[in-house]
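User: Before I run my own analysis I want an independent prediction to cross-check against. Here's the chain; please return only the structure tokens and, at the end, one sentence I can use as a sanity check.
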Amino acid sequence: MTHHRSRHHAPFALLGQPPARRQKKTTVPDRLRTHRLADLQPRILSSLVLMSAALLSVWLGGPAFLVVWILAASAVGYEWQHLIGAERQRLRLVLALVAVAVAATVTAQDGIVAAVAFLALAGTLAALLAGDGRRLWACAGIAYAGALVVAVVALHDSPGYGARAIVWLFATVWGTDVFAYFGGRLIGGPKLWPKVSPSKTWSGTLSGVVAGAVFGAVIGARWLGSPLPVLPIFLLGLVTAMVAQAGDVFESCIKRHYGVKDSSVLIPGHGGFMDRLDGFVAAAAFATLVGICRDQPSIAEGLFVWS
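Assistant: Structure tokens:
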């Protein structure tokens, strides 16, 4: 019996204290809390810079708005084509940049159909350049970056409601992102889809969707010019926030497929522009489709006029 005790306790006796006391000194909750919010400072700083640039583009309008969003969509197109690692990468990168710039310029001249047709042509060329196994991915990258710039330019250039539509999108998507981030880390709970996005939780997703709809309704219906009906805009914001979260998951699926954590390292705390704009791309494209289907005088007007 004595030998049995000495065999199990002797190694810990050499360390000067029993195992239970040594384990108490590890502050696991503190380490977890620090890890959960470790990227908060760079995320905040990067977000402030990007938000300022986005808002400034709306305030300046005209060519400045076009240039800012051509650059943003070009970064998205660059990251996608680089991420898939297919053949003739330089040619595909140049093609993506040209396609985004042309599509934005054509859309600004009320040529949304022509812009979509040009993107389809550019996507086909990208598929031919990419080689076997990557053709569909290369084409999808052109469509993805093009959808961003065509959507924001088409909405912004809508007479009377253009700037309001973009700011409403900002409020909805940013509100969704912020509350999904903090809701997931502070509330925790079951994961939404662990195999695809290990950090995304149901609590964060639901918090973000509701918050995005509320922010969008307040900004869109009350703070931007004449009052508009709150309930339809809230419901539209609710669906748009869900679409934004789906866009986030979609981009996570792409990264998981290619075995990377971030699309690039261009934005501290966020990774790349695809990581930052994934929800916004989906939300902007969805809002544009809704505006087109509403058959109002302009696309953005289709989002706000419900009488």
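Sanity check: Residues 230-258 form the longest helix (29 residues).
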